[in-house]
Design a protein that fits this description.
With 695 residues, the chain is an alpha/beta fold. The chain has 24 helices and 18 strands. Strands 7-8-6-9-10-5-11 form a 7-stranded parallel sheet, with helices on both faces. A 7-stranded parallel sheet has the order 14-15-13-16-17-12-18, sandwiched between helices. The two termini are 27 Å apart. Bound molecules: adenosine-5'-triphosphate. Adenosine-5'-triphosphate is lined by residues 127, 130-131, 134, 153-159, 299, 467, 469, 493, 497-498. It is found in: Nucleus, Nucleolus. Belongs to the DEAD box helicase family. DDX31/DBP7 subfamily. Residues 46-55, 683-695 have a biased composition (Polar residues). GO terms for molecular function: ATP binding; hydrolase activity; RNA binding; RNA helicase activity.
């Protein structure tokens, strides 16, 4: 849909009869989708207030790091603090969150494992007692049963399946030969997770050198993966797409000896539309081997997994740490019934969250989102010690935009590639980014760097939401709200792992406040941090101070001064964005990407996240744009020929098509990624972001 002048005029006409008619100046800032008559609430929200005032162009100075005064060009900066929608009182329902105990007092010695395996667990992995999920799952799996395993994020599910797999394979009477090919197949949704699981398996196999692990994850040349397959991999870890590619093209892959099939993050594997790939893989396995053990695991086993369980598990045990009534002595009949029957939606959709995780929400008007995010990053990572933060965005383009913007404005000259920085820019800050449009080598390097780093800010898409075990992460920021409670759980689950403390912050617009109730209905409790408290960090940094003229007395550090400092920060962003035509157009494309992603929230959340509720002019400010762009194309994807891999999804809406494309590009096997990215680049042209970290 284009925001044509005609539509803008029509919208204007609609409002001329209203006492809150938008001023002529803001004609192009009207709400999206003007076809629908705005409700009173929307009208107020979108058009509240009078003319969006601007500071009259004037020169002002900011102090530089060295105490020098630097004159900034005269630029009109719209008022950040005027004409914003009111921030509603959050009457959040307090719900009793589900809790799981992380550790048990029992040690691994009680499992009857091979002594070398126990000594590897205790000396190499340095673990002594079992976690709850390990205590419940390992004995069941060692008995030879299939299992559906659910326990909270960071509770040790990886070892819960790796230990039984290694124990059983090392004990096989006829010793495993490398050339035998795979005995165990582990499927995970992302390449980083594949690498991480491979690492764990490799460590456990230290004493059993004759068992060879291997990973297939795309990004590597298919030829060299083929060569490794030919030599033999006994425990094979792969993303589904990549494995399907090898099944179709490689003669060297045999499944006749497969004894274990593990689907980690099982619900995600389905979400991503990998169902067809899973069917291909299951058919290939079934054609060559009849008897094997199957395990599905996730912190959030949602409805879809019941379907997957039906086709992949045989008479499984359902293990949920949450479920206090779990009984190992389940009769086969009862267990089968537990898994096959859908649970009540309440049970199914209530997830345990680590007790050591403090969850917060803040309501921020669109205009102030960017400064608020930056202030929070500065507060934690500049003024506090040893903070490690992950910020989630809804698209690769948004990650690139914010990464580049922060790199050029918030870093000190030692680390920053450009000179237009904040006067108080900090060399203590380190920004990294991770998303599906990056080359695999870079993705792996970033993953490793952030993993080993004590501090830093990782900007990423949901490619990092699942399963990744990044040590010592202290804060999770959700700058784009997740599209499901399960995604919320997985994102925040990157912190507070295995009993450590962690915090999360969800940033919502005032119009999105109801999302807090939606979370509460899944027994997710968040407490509010006021936006003013986040912005108040600016008081600690005189780099944001406006120069006082003449005899003007300096303000006490009250709300007025904070607002001025926030405006200085916003102006730094706007200066950078408006430094060239290219940067302006780059910011517009990022805005467009935001709107597109916003349009893809599922139906059940549309009443909260609807493009109609967005104020284009205000949202534009959060991209450093001084004015709302005209003729913004938000649904061009409707006209695009979609190139979906899933015929079943083609019947669904165009927005879902776009979402699926985004997701597939995030999680693809890697073989087609280059082609897809190139193709998208061609089709979208304007959507591509500068490959250099700055225009
Ligand atoms: N028994 C244990 N004692 C101490 N640390 C453990 C134990 N088991 C696992 N860990 C550690 O806990 C961390 C989290 O484990 P893991 O990644 O398997 O969690 P998870 O349940 O799979 O999480 P997610 O749901 O996010 O995928 C890892 O660093 C792992 O090494």
């Amino acid at each position: 849909m284009m925001f044509s002048n005609q539509q803008a005029k029509a919208t204007k006409r609609k409002h001329q009869g209203s006492s809150e008619a938008p001023p002529a100046k803001r004609r192009h800032e009207t709400a999206f989708l003007p076809a629908k008559k705005p409700s009173v609430k929307e009208t107020q929200r979108t058009f509240k207030g009078n003319t969006q005032k601007t500071f009259s162009p004037k020169k002002y100075s900011v102090s530089t790091g060295g105490g020098k005064q630097e004159e900034r060009p005269c630029i009109k900066t719209s008022s950040l603090f005027k004409n914003n929608p009111e921030i509603p009182e959050l009457h959040r329902p307090v719900v009793k969150q589900e809790r799981e105990q992380v550790f048990t007092p029992e040690s691994f010695h009680e499992l009857g494992l091979h002594p070398h395996l126990i000594s590897t667990i205790t000396t190499v992995l340095k673990m002594s007692s079992m976690t709850s999920v390990q205590k419940q799952s390992i004995p069941v799996l060692l008995e030879g049963r299939d299992a559906l395993v659910r326990s909270q994020t960071g509770s040790g599910k990886t070892l819960a399946y790796c230990i039984p797999v290694v124990q059983s394979l090392q004990a096989l009477k006829s010793k495993i030969q490398r050339s035998d090919g795979p005995y165990a197949l582990v499927l995970v949704p992302t390449r980083e997770l594949a690498l991480q699981s491979f690492d764990t398996v490799q460590k456990l196999l230290k004493p059993f050198t004759w068992i060879v692990p291997g990973v297939l994850m795309g990004g590597e040349k298919r030829k060299s993966e083929k060569a490794r397959l030919r030599k033999g991999i006994n425990i094979l870890i792969s993303t589904p797409g990549r494995l399907v590619d090898h099944i179709k093209s490689t003669k060297n892959i045999r499944f006749s000896r497969i004894q274990w099939l593990v689907l980690d993050e099982a619900d995600r594997i389905l979400d991503l539309g990998f169902e067809k790939d899973i069917t291909v893989i299951l058919n290939a396995l079934n054609a060559e081997c009849q008897k094997r053990q199957n395990i599905l695991l996730s912190a959030t086993l949602t409805e879809g997994v019941t379907r997957l369980a039906d086709i992949s598990l045989h008479n499984p045990v359902s293990i949920s740490v949450l479920d206090k009534s779990h009984d190992h002595s389940n009769t086969e009949g009862r267990v089968a019934r537990e898994v096959a029957l859908p649970q009540t939606s309440n049970e199914r959709d209530s997830f345990a969250i680590p007790e050591s995780l403090d969850q917060h929400v803040t309501l921020v008007p669109s205009k102030l989102r960017l400064v608020c995010l930056a202030a929070f990053v500065l507060q934690k990572c500049k003024f506090e010690k040893d903070q490690k933060m992950i910020i989630f965005f809804s698209s690769c383009e948004l990650v690139e935009f914010h990464y580049t913007l922060f790199l050029h404005t918030l870093l000190s000259s030692s680390g920053a590639p450009a000179s237009r920085q904040l006067p108080s820019a900090s060399s203590r800050l380190k920004f990294l980014r991770l998303h599906g449009n990056m080359k695999q080598e870079e993705r792996t390097a970033v993953f490793q760097e952030f993993s080993h780093s004590k501090t830093g800010v990782l900007l990423c898409t949901d490619v990092a939401a699942r399963g990744l075990d990044l040590p010592r992460v202290t804060w999770i920021i959700q700058y784009s709200a997740p599209s499901s409670p399960a995604e919320y759980i997985h994102r925040i689950g990157r912190t507070a792992r295995i009993g450590c403390r962690g915090s999360s912050l969800l940033i919502l617009a005032p119009s999105e406040a109801e999302y807090v109730n939606s979370l509460a209905s899944h027994k997710i409790n968040v407490s509010e941090i006021k936006m003013a408290d986040i912005l108040s960090v600016l008081a600690r940094d005189d780099g944001f101070k406006r120069k006082q003229r003449g005899n003007q007395k300096s303000h006490a550090l009250g709300p007025q001064e904070i607002q001025e400092r926030a405006t200085v920060l916003q102006t730094v962003f706007e200066d950078y964005v408006h430094s060239s035509k290219r940067t302006v157009s780059w910011a517009k494309k990022a805005l467009q990407s935001f709107i597109r992603a916003y349009a893809t929230y599922p139906r059940e959340l549309k009443h909260i996240f609807h493009v109609r509720s967005l104020h284009l002019g205000h949202v534009a400010k959060s991209f450093g744009l001084r004015d709302a762009p005209r003729n913004l194309c938000v649904t061009s994807m409707k006209k695009r020929k979609t190139n979906l891999r899933r015929p079943d999804l083609q019947k669904k809406t165009q927005n879902k098509h776009y979402l699926t494309e985004v997701l597939l590009s995030e999680y693809s096997s890697g073989l087609e990624a280059g082609a897809r990215v190139r193709k998208q680049g061609k089709q979208e042209g304007q959507q591509s972001v500068p490959s250099e970290p700055g225009p």
